[in-house]
Amino acid sequence: xxxxxxxxxxxxxxxxxxxxxxxxxxxxxxxxxxxxxxxxxxxxxxxxxxxxxxxxxxxxxxxxxxxxxxxxxxxxxxxxxxxxxxxxxxxxxxxxxxxxxxxxxxxxxxxxxxxxxxxxxxxxxxxxxxxxxxxxxxxxxxxxxxxxxxxxxxxxxxxxxxxxxxxxxxxxxxxxxxxxxxxxxxxxxxxxxxxxxxxxxxxxxxxxxxxxxxxxxxxxxxxxxxxxxxxxxxxxxxxxxxxxxxxxxxxxxxxxxxxxxxxxxxxxxxxxxxxxxxxxxxxxxxxxxxxxxxxxxxxxxxxxxxxxxxxxxxxxxxxxxxxxxxxxxxxxxxxxxxxxxxxxxxxxxxxxxxxxxxxxxxxxxxxxxxxxxxxxxxxxxxxxxxxxxxxxxxxxxxxxxxxxxxxxxxxxxxxxx
Length: 417
What we know:
Layout lengths: L1 H20 L2 H30 L8 H20 L5 H12 L4 H28 L2 H23 L6 H13 L19 H29 L7 H52 L3 H9 L1 H4 L2 H11 L6 H30 L7 H18 L3 H4 L10 H17 L11
Helix pairs in contact: 1-7, 1-13, 2-3, 2-6, 4-13, 5-9, 5-12, 8-9, 8-12, 8-13, 8-14, 9-10, 9-12, 9-14, 13-14
């Protein structure tokens, strides 16, 4: 919760700052900050191993016991502070800079999220292969806090061009974003036009449902009548994780190329409604696995929404738009699990426990009309037959024209594409 709230407060402002100052410095900072909790966890693991290796006696080193008590609290504080600098928001902004406007952006965003999930899904296997938790944690700490930042510093290039930085500085100065102390000022970009407002609503609905399902699933399956064992739960999560990775890495791009982001979004919400409904009516383990299989399509929603917003924003706004997107997503990610938890507590002792999943069905179902209302010429980046060049420029011009006309002014094309 604390991490999500801090991301909501800071992500949009820091994203806007990277449009001017560049992504690389904040990318390195975000890596270091996000991996600091690993160092604390490594110290905690080594400490507990040292304590457990001692013979229990009243003369045990009191300083070790005190440290063992303090380190978990330090870990939770540092983990919450990682929300101040959103690594994923900065990384997706870098990808938006480096990837031409078009269907490739949804595919690249999907691959980035797939790689992130891949690390989570494979970590238990790596731990089992090494066979020693202390060594595993120390290796992760060294890689995360030394090798990754060093590699980023030496080999990752700055993705913000001087022209884009100058345009961002000019635009933010004119709108007082540079001097404003209000951290939420950059989030005004989410209300730029009807397209962005609809997409913002989609982020809220889909993130609330998806994050709540991810949080509540293991609590739900452990209780009667499902009574999952640890092995059952691990297999379910493994199936959801790896199918999601494969679909985002290998299927998202051909689907977007063939049907466009808009139709892929609709497909993702239909799949989300089915998987939540399957959870709600499941009385056997097999039915839960059937419902979980649809998650691999549901995960298309966020990369497609991010890509549509990115494609309809200027190159000088990529940090601002991704930061604002993650601000809203983090807030929804905090509200969703909290709401589902309260519904679950209120209904878990009733004859049927599926009420909270019906809330998820409702969230996905409500999102579908917003997806249908998305204009094809702005939502689908392959509109008018192009992939990156002419079609992408026309796509951005359509968004700019709609924004100006809604404000009652005359349309004047920008110089930044």
